[in-house]
Structures are given as structure tokens and as C-alpha cells.
TrEMBL record:
<feature type="transmembrane region" description="Helical">
    <location>
        <begin position="51"/>
        <end position="72"/>
    </location>
</feature>
<keyword id="KW-0472">Membrane</keyword>
<protein>
    <recommendedName>
        <fullName>ABC transmembrane type-1 domain-containing protein</fullName>
    </recommendedName>
</protein>
<dbReference type="GO" id="GO:0005524">
    <property type="term" value="F:ATP binding"/>
</dbReference>
<keyword id="KW-1133">Transmembrane helix</keyword>
<feature type="domain" description="ABC transmembrane type-1">
    <location>
        <begin position="1"/>
        <end position="61"/>
    </location>
</feature>
<dbReference type="GO" id="GO:0016020">
    <property type="term" value="C:membrane"/>
</dbReference>
<keyword id="KW-0812">Transmembrane</keyword>
<dbReference type="InterPro" id="IPR011527">
    <property type="entry name" value="ABC1_TM_dom"/>
</dbReference>
<feature type="transmembrane region" description="Helical">
    <location>
        <begin position="6"/>
        <end position="39"/>
    </location>
</feature>
<dbReference type="GO" id="GO:0140359">
    <property type="term" value="F:ABC-type transporter activity"/>
</dbReference>
<feature type="transmembrane region" description="Helical">
    <location>
        <begin position="78"/>
        <end position="100"/>
    </location>
</feature>
Amino acid sequence: MIMILIILTIIIIIIIIIIIIIIIIIIIIITIITIIIIIIMMMMMMMMMMMMMMMMMMMMMMMIIMIIMVIVTVKVDVVVVVVVVVVVVVVVVVVVVVVVV
């Protein structure tokens, strides 16, 4: 009787230990997966930011080219110059804000 009890308790203890180990392994796996996902997300975000920056740069270049074309075609009108200056300032401000944020 006593022997049976002892054996039973040992079996129960072993089962509990196994369960705990399995739980720990599962937790570790989950944390690793989450970390990998987070890293991937961060990389994606960085890529997106880089793409955005590139797009902004391209847009700026296009705007400047357009402005130069307009100035050349209109033989430097005062109004055109004012508009150009305003546009450039706005674009620069937007870019700075985006970069800072």
C-alpha cells in the first residue's frame, strides 16, 4: 500500500515537471516568435520611412524643376517668384516636420 502511494506520488511529480517544462518551452517559443515579428515590423517600418524620405526628396526635386521651368517660361514675373518662394518654404517646412517627427 505504502509502496503504491510512493510510486503514485513519484509519477504525479514527474508528470507535473514534464508539464512545467512543456509550458516553459512553449513560452520561450512564443517570445522568440514575437521578438522576430517585432524585428521584422521594425525593419518594415524603417524601409517604409526610407521609401517615404526618398519619395519626399524626389517630390522636392520635381517641384524645384517645375518651378525653374515656370520661371523660365514666364520670364520671371513678380507673382510667380512670390508663389515659388512660398511653395519652396512650405515644402521645406513639411520635410523638416516629417524628419523631426
